[in-house]
């Protein structure tokens, strides 16, 4: 069975959705590790409840990104991690992890990329006044939400709909779509990771 590590920085609702899907057998994988860059993030409490080991670090205690990514990489290798799943991880992935896990790092973003990359994507879309937004799952590369798109799901915004309602509906899509796409990636056969990237 494949082993995945989830990287998260916040409350961990997508972390929880992935763990729940794995427990139900909807994702055929072991959640082997949580990696978190914020020592007081709520996601750490979720990992403790779910008996998922955590590697929690404070980036400012390291001289460079390469230093803490080397330590993360050691943790991943010790646990035999096959895939990295970003779930609200608020840092760009650097060359150390990108090279070690080429085409094996995925992220979920609450907009229809390439529209509204970066932070507060739901708020960006709301303030812009778009009628359609959504969720994107994509491979991770060196850029900010620029990797090849794997899957998208659209959400139509109602006239006068408040931001809180849009956020809730976006999160509902995330919690369903992300586990489905992760399982698809884990079970795809007959093609290399490079071929999968080029097909999307």
TrEMBL record:
Active-site annotation: 109
This protein's record includes keyword Lipid biosynthesis: no
Pathway assigned in UniProt: Purine metabolism; IMP biosynthesis via de novo pathway; N(2)-formyl-N(1)-(5-phospho-D-ribosyl)glycinamide from N(1)-(5-phospho-D-ribosyl)glycinamide (10-formyl THF route): step 1/1
Positions of the Formyl transferase N-terminal domain: 2-182
Class in the EC hierarchy, top level: transferase
Site (Raises pKa of active site His): 145
Annotated EC: 2.1.2.2
Catalytic activity line of the entry: N(1)-(5-phospho-beta-D-ribosyl)glycinamide + (6R)-10-formyltetrahydrofolate = N(2)-formyl-N(1)-(5-phospho-beta-D-ribosyl)glycinamide + (6S)-5,6,7,8-tetrahydrofolate + H(+)
UniProt keyword S-adenosyl-L-methionine, yes or no: no
GO molecular-function term, one example from the UniProt record: phosphoribosylglycinamide formyltransferase activity
Alphabetically ordered keywords of this record: Purine biosynthesis, Transferase
Ligand binding (N(1)-(5-phospho-beta-D-ribosyl)glycinamide): 12-14
Binding site for (6R)-10-formyltetrahydrofolate: 65, 90-93, 107
Superkingdom, natural source: Bacteria
One GO term (biological process): 'de novo' IMP biosynthetic process
GO cellular component: cytosol
Function: Catalyzes the transfer of a formyl group from 10-formyltetrahydrofolate to 5-phospho-ribosyl-glycinamide (GAR), producing 5-phospho-ribosyl-N-formylglycinamide (FGAR) and tetrahydrofolate.
Family membership noted in the UniProt record: Belongs to the GART family.
The protein's name in its UniProt record: Phosphoribosylglycinamide formyltransferase
Organism: Anoxybacillus pushchinoensis
Gene symbol of the encoding locus: purN
């Amino acid at each position: 069975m494949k082993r995945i590590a989830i990287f998260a920085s916040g409350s961990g609702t997508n972390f929880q959705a992935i763990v729940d899907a794995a427990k139900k057998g909807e994702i055929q994988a072991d959640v082997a590790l949580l990696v978190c860059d914020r020592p007081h993030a709520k996601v750490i409490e979720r990992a403790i409840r779910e008996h998922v080991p955590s590697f929690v670090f404070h980036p400012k205690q390291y001289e460079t990104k390469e230093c803490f990514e080397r330590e993360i990489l050691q943790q991943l290798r010790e646990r035999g991690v096959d895939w990295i799943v970003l779930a609200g991880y608020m840092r760009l992935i650097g060359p150390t992890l990108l090279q070690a896990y080429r085409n094996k790092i995925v992220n979920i973003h609450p907009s229809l990329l390439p529209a509204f990359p970066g932070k507060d994507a739901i708020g960006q879309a709301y303030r812009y006044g778009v009628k359609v937004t959504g969720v994107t799952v994509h491979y991770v590369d060196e850029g900010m939400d620029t990797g090849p798109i794997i899957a998208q799901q659209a959400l139509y915004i109602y006239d006068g709909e408040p931001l809180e309602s849009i956020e809730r509906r976006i999160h509902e899509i995330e919690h369903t779509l992300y586990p489905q796409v992760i399982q698809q990636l884990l079970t795809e056969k007959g093609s290399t990771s490079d071929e999968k990237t080029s097909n999307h």
